[in-house]
Amino acid sequence: MPITNTSAAITPASQPLFMLKSQSIGWGQKTVLEALDLKIEEGEKVAVVGKSGAGKSTLIHTLYQQHPEKIAYCSQEYGLVPSLSVFHNIYMGQLDQHHFAYNLVNLLRPIKSQITKIQPLAETLGLQAHLFNPAERLSGGQQQRVALARTLFQNKDIFIGDEPISSVDEVQSEHILALIMSHHNTTILTLHNADLALRFCSRIIGIRNGKIELDCATQDLSASQLRSLYQD
Ligand SMILES: Nc1ncnc2c1ncn2[C@@H]1O[C@H](COP(=O)(O)OP(=O)(O)OP(=O)(O)O)[C@@H](O)[C@H]1O
């Protein structure tokens, strides 16, 4: 007798968290990256590197779209509400977890338990002195840290960040990358700083000339391979 339904008997091999199969990606009619084949497993720490305009943001945005509900996504545009306080901007990371009325009360008069939750995060990111200042009064680097705090406050398993440390100094960059790594199981970042990519990530994906030119474990990567990505 033929077996018509094998799905219950056979356990399917686990799927990669992210997968692109011969997929071309871009914006509107414009193709940025062609015929991509890519798998990213749960738990990986991936850096996407390459020259400006190579297509790094395009790639990570495409990956984000595969599981938007599971991902804390930090884009290059901070998306802050300028007139609201740092506290309120960070709180927005969990806006969808509360009732409208609760959010409204917290907007008018910050709820103590929320302050208690947000304060340590603000402190870790050097924002404690500005917690109740409007975001618009902060420097660019401080605003970037507010956007990052809001993303971390989402408490998701996966972090995708587009240059999350582009406006902060070297010491802060290391601290922030360590924080991102410790808060998320799977991390995918675009980074301009190749040294930091090598130190904090276990896999490097290099983009050049509209394709993935390099995809390897950090430990197997030579400095000259990495440099070649930045040549014309
Ligand atoms: N929202 C968008 N709409 C239309 N085209 C876009 C958009 N974002 C990026 N592009 C185009 O896609 C191409 C790749 O840009 P992308 O931002 O992915 O590069 P990148 O490697 O992230 O650059 P950078 O390091 O400067 O951020 C560029 O030609 C850019 O003009």
From TrEMBL:
Pfam families for this protein: ABC_tran (PF00005)
Residues in ABC transporter domain copies: 18-231
Keywords: ATP-binding, Cell membrane, Membrane, Nucleotide-binding, Translocase, Transport
Chief site of localization: membrane
Subcellular locations according to the entry: Cell inner membrane
Topological type in the membrane: Peripheral membrane protein
Molecular function in Gene Ontology: ATP binding
Lipid biosynthesis in keyword set: no
Classification via PANTHER family: AMINO ACID IMPORT ATP-BINDING PROTEIN, PHOSPHONATES IMPORT ATP-BINDING PROTEIN PHNC
Protein name per the record: ATP-binding cassette domain-containing protein
SUPFAM superfamilies: P-loop containing nucleoside triphosphate hydrolases
InterPro entries reported for this sequence: AAA+_ATPase, ABC_transporter-like_ATP-bd, ABC_transporter-like_CS, MetN_ABC_transporter-like, P-loop_NTPase
Keyword Mitochondrion: no
